[in-house]
Amino acid sequence: MSTPRPTTATQPAAERPPAPPARTEPRLPGVLPLALVRARVELLGFLRERDAVFFILLYPVLMLLIFSTVFGSDGLGLVDDAGREVSFARYFLPGMVATGVMLSSFQSLAISVAVERDDGTLRRLRATPLPPVAYFLGKAGQILVVTLGQVAALLAVAALVYDVPLPDEPGRWWTFAWVLLLGSATGTVCGVAFSSLPRSGRSATAVVTPVVLVLQFISGVFFMLDQLPVWLQRVAEVFPLKWMAQGMRSVFLPDSALVLEPSGSWQHGPAAAILGAWLLVGLVVGVRTFRWRRRDDG
């Protein structure tokens, strides 16, 4: 009768075979690297949609060309410190910069996120290891790149075609930077929050576009703000676009243009406060109402 071989449990510790190494799950990259990758994906997807590129990226440039052509070379009867007359192209440039920021951020996200929710893209993303923060930061990164490209095109057309002088004071460029960044961040957050309002991706454009158009007409983008009824001016003061446009006018227009401002001041403090308040409101509303699935998908 053969002697049974000792099992691993009964073998002396010195004779036991080494245990196989424990399997470790691969670690995901950090949130920031994932956000950068997601921003690249979002940007490539945006550039493939030629209609979106045209209406969002080139719309402000086209409107600047139209308004400057309609009003011609006539000026506003104002001169800057260098003795140059303020042209209509120079006056409308700040409003087009502001409306471009709103189109690139608020309108773009309010529509695209609603469409992604409707076609199941958000549901599939939620099932992946991608952190939600990386998804939203990727969206913000894409918006920032598009906005910078759009503003660069606007400034190039204004300077090269209509001889609009660009600021030569560091303080004005600092104002330009914080108004642009704060306005873009506010539009991005509010766009994500507003994306939960349309009932489907198909209805998103019909819901979002009228809001954008109304704000453009009452916020001093297409008309001089002091020519609007006082009650419309008060309504516009509630929303961010009016303050973005006014902040941009303080960058590109001389102080002599303050006579066209109802308040007689550029109001940088109130502009920062209103934009910051909308940023916080958008964050709170977005966190409480954002959905990864359609309403009829549970």
Automatic annotation (TrEMBL):
One of its GO terms (molecular function) is ABC-type transporter activity. Keywords: Antibiotic resistance, Cell membrane, Membrane, Transmembrane, Transmembrane helix, Transport. The chain crosses the membrane at residues 52-71, 91-115, 136-161, 173-194, 206-225, 271-290. The lineage of its organism: Bacteria, Bacillati, Actinomycetota, Actinomycetes, Micrococcales. Residues 1-14 have a biased composition (Low complexity). The keyword Glycosyltransferase does not apply. It is a multi-pass membrane protein. It is found in: Cell membrane; Membrane. Belongs to the ABC-2 integral membrane protein family. Residues 1-26 are annotated as: Disordered. Residues 51-293 form the ABC transmembrane type-2 domain. GO terms for cellular component: ATP-binding cassette (ABC) transporter complex. InterPro entries: ABC2_TM, ABC2_TM_bact-type, ABC_2_transport, Nod_factor_ABC_transporter. It comes from Xylanimonas oleitrophica. Its main location: membrane. GO terms for biological process: response to antibiotic. This is Transport permease protein.
